[in-house]
Amino acid sequence: MAFYGHVIKALIQTKHTLLPHEPSDPYAAQEEQLRNLLETAKDTAFGKYYNFARILEAEDVRKTYREEVPIFDYDTINEEWWKKQRHDPDITWPGRPGFFALSSGTTGKKSKRIPVTDEMLECTQRVGRAQAECLANFDLPAELFEKDILMLTSSADLNEKDGWLEGEISGINVSNMPEFMEGVYKPGLEIAQIADWDERVQRIAEEAPKWDVGALAGIPSWMVMMLRKVIEHNKLSNIHEIWPNLSIYTTGGVAFEPYRQTFEALLDHPITIMDTYLASEGFFAFNARPGTMAMELALDHGMYFEFVPHNERGFDSAGTILEKPKVVDFRGVEEGVDYALIVSTPAGAWRYMIGDTIKFMDKEKMEIVITGRTKYFLNVVGSQLSEEKLNKAIGVLNKNTGATVKEFTVGAIKREEDGEYVHQWVLGLEEGELDAEKAKEELDRHLQEANKNYAVARKKALKDIRVRVEPADRLYAFLEQTKKKGGQIKFPKVMPEEKLLELLEFLKK
After folding, report:
1. Taking the CA atoms of the chain, what radius of gyration do you get in angstroms?
2. What is the C-alpha separation between 9 and 431, in angstroms, rounded?
3. Prior bond to 309 cis, omega within 30?
4. Shortest CA distance to 132 belongs to which of 149, 156, 154?
5. What is the distance between the alpha carbons of residues 265 and 244, in angstroms, rounded to a whole number?
6. Can you give the pLDDT of all 509 residues of the chain as single tens digits?
7. How far is CA 218 from CA 136, 147, 350, 479, in A?
8. What DSSP state is assigned to residue 250?
9. Interior CA angle at 484 toward 480 and 490, to 5°?
10. Residue 432's domain spans which residues?
11. Where are the beta strands (DSSP E) in 397-440?
12. 323, exposed or middle or buried, with CB in 10 Å at 0-12, 13-18, 19+?
């Protein structure tokens, strides 16, 4: 009998009932987060430059903060402030960060360095505990609370620089794991610190029979590859043959739906799948209840959020934010509208646009879904295709053809013969067969039916669409040539013309 599991489950349920994790007044909670951030950083160089002390005395702190502090993208805040913070204390946050998170660089640019302070690590852990407490909402066996948790992260072997350590955020978080997690965390730091992805996965496959895994966490594309390796190495039919108590998978990083069919094929029976929103800049939201993949925004865990409509009120047709965009806080959001997320955090990020777009599905429950990236918005000829719409189109394609497209990318390129724009798709096929012409018909038909802007574009400036079907491994090989494989790396859903032509050239070899 799982005695300790029953005790832990009872404690979680009791705390969840008596001390709900969500704020009773989210509006007041967000103002408190902002005031705490401003108060803590008012004596930093950034705080003095933008006069945080005066903002704190304003009648409407949120309005004054919005008026006095500009919105920053990475290039601007890094050039003006964060570069100094690497060597000097008290620039955008008291002291110097002990860590810098390297972004995954999906667009092919040089990795960003995002500061990670001790306070930011504590903030992330608080959100993690809130998610754990929400397990009380799910009908989970008591035995689960005694089982191992396998987190598939980027390498935890961090690089030492001039007074700080750097690596991808999942590797940093694993390296700073709370003590209570050490006994159940797998694959353990020794394996997690193996830099080579293939070697790390091989070691996981070899050690897998020694573990009793009840929960998985990681990006779905790489999780599928790891599970397949475990199954292959141990000569299994499905992953439950070696981990019979596996009950939960916490996904994140990219939309799960395009991977659902492939992932579930590796199981013996259905498990609970929970989504999370964990970025280099912070842990922003998590799935808090069954029956939905929408995630509850972490409004009272140390971060302050603002939202810019991802339409003509906030961005131009190229996905660039307007000089004076419409900006709202939590009070002004509307359900069903795409917003660019603006965050202020205890890492010294101030009104920072991280590049993701989200949509509120239930404002009362503070639940959101990630809809894409501000730059992953295909609108060169007015087609207005968000990442969310592209993912749905691939889902329809898989359903109607019986194929399994695991990865994909699309972009607008000019035809050599006349300079007119066409949409070029590259589909990474995992299973089954898929005729490129059939895929073209299905994608074009669905998008014209589902998106009136796309339908208008197809009658005017968008002269054609082209589809290239390749094994999914070929797309990963393209990432691997730039040493971007495994961990938190995500294949971009929309590519600029130059990068897309580079991919097409690679696929010809």
Report:
1. 23
2. 39
3. no
4. 149
5. 15
6. 343 343 344 444 444 444 455 666 888 999 999 999 999 999 999 999 999 999 999 999 999 999 999 999 999 999 999 999 999 999 999 999 999 998 754 444 567 899 999 999 999 999 988 888 888 888 887 788 788 999 998 888 888 988 899 988 888 888 888 776 777 899 998 998 888 888 999 999 999 999 999 999 998 888 998 999 999 999 999 999 999 999 999 998 878 887 888 899 999 999 999 999 999 999 999 999 999 999 999 999 999 999 999 888 998 766 688 989 999 998 899 999 999 999 999 999 999 999 889 999 999 999 999 987 776 667 676 677 777 788 889 989 998 998 889 889 998 888 888 888 889 999 999 877 899 999 999 999 999 998 887 888 888 778 899 999 999 889 888 887 765 555 556 788 888 888 899 999 999 88
7. 22, 17, 28, 18
8. E
9. 110
10. 379-508
11. 404-414, 421-431
12. exposed
Secondary structure (3-state) at 262: helix
- pTM for this structure? 0.78
Tallying the residues shown for the chain, one arrives at: 509
d(CA 145, CA 7): 9
Structural domain includes residue 437: yes
Cβ-defined contacts of 33-36 (< 8 Å, 24+): 33/299, 33/300, 33/301, 33/302, 33/303, 33/304, 34/61, 34/62, 34/65, 34/304, 34/344, 35/61, 36/302
Please tell me the total count of domains within the chain: 1
Strands 165-167 and 99-102: parallel
HSE value, Cβ hemisphere, 13 Å, CA-based, for 235: 0
Amino acid at residue number 151: M
User: Phi first, then psi: what are they for 12, rounded to 5°?
Assistant: -65, -45
3-state SS of 59-115?
Answer: CCHHHHHHHHCCCECHHHHHHHHHHHHCCCCCCCCCCCCCEEEECCCCCCCCCCEEE
Do the domain assignments include residue 408? yes
What are the two backbone dihedrals, phi and then psi, of residue 292, each rounded to the nearest 5 degrees? Answer: -155, 155
Residue bearing tokens 């000089």: 323
Q: Indicate the burial class of 185 (C-beta count within 10 angstroms; 0-12, 13-18, 19 or more).
A: middle
Assigned domain for 462 exists? yes
CATH of residue 402: 3.30.300
> Closest Cα to residue 301, out of 105, 425, 130?
130
In a domain, 145, yes or no: no
Q: Parallel, antiparallel, or unpaired: how do β-strands 99-102 and 248-252 relate?
A: unpaired
Residue type, 254: V
Q: Are 41 and 93 in contact (CB under 8 A)?
A: yes
Residue 426 and residue 476: Cα distance in Å, rounded?
Answer: 12
Residue type at 41 in one-letter notation: A
